[in-house]
Sequence to fold (272 residues):
Amino acid sequence: MDELKNKTVIITGASSGIGLACAEVFAQQGANLVLAARRYVDLCTLAQSLETNYRIRALAVQCDVAKEADCQLLIQQAVTTFGGVDVLVNNAGISMRALFGELDLAVLHRLMDVNFWGTVYCTKYAIGELLRSGGSVVAVSSIAGFRGLPGRTGYSASKFAIHGFMESLRVENLKTGLHVMLACPGFTASNIRQTALDAAGAAHGETSMDEAQMMTAQEVAERIVLGVVRRRRTLVMTRQGKLAVWMNKLFPAWVDKQVYKLFAKEKNPLVK
Fold:
């Protein structure tokens, strides 16, 4: 995929999970990288490794995407270092696991600040450069952006908001050359469930699902990179996910029951 060689790719949430895997796959294709996350030491180690292994350039930028000023500085540093931006992957995100009636509303605020506003801030400050390059803006979303999930009210709400934002952005730019893509993995083996917030806003520290049965972050990253090259509109990455999206349109009440049954099988289920 020579289309990505020497392109400048910004990846938020790049220190672990899907973001880290995306960094590896984009680097394999010869792209120069701007890696953003809060864990700066991990980012520096990753940047050095990618530069050594793939002979690309990689810049580590400490960034909390919930802070507008951090996002603005991220884009400025990318432009200063590489002269522009070709791809923005809005990957940074957090999850939650708590029934709505029991949670502190600060949890929902945090989910929206990171997942939704983080995407908005980075896209806002990068869009001028992306329009100049005819580049791509990607939001890593979820099936939860199509279908609300029990115990994940804030997560689902943030992903629905991202979908509305990205769809509007796509229509606004139908004739500008900007590529807008939603990437919706199925359940992915990563640390997102361990770091998911509980009712009080603390990290759970353990997964509630069988990680062995899930997509790997590597699989997700490979599909995202190919989707950027092919300028895909929406990636729903699993058969189960595609079925859920279509059945939810046709038989929403039936899907309510199936989703309830699925989440009742979690470890220490919230619905029973």
About this structure: Residues 105-133 form the longest helix (29 residues). The domain at 2-241 is CATH 3.40.50.720 (Rossmann fold). The chain has a mean pLDDT of 94. Helices lie at 17-28, 40-54, 68-82, 105-133, 153-172, 217-230, 239-250, 252-263.
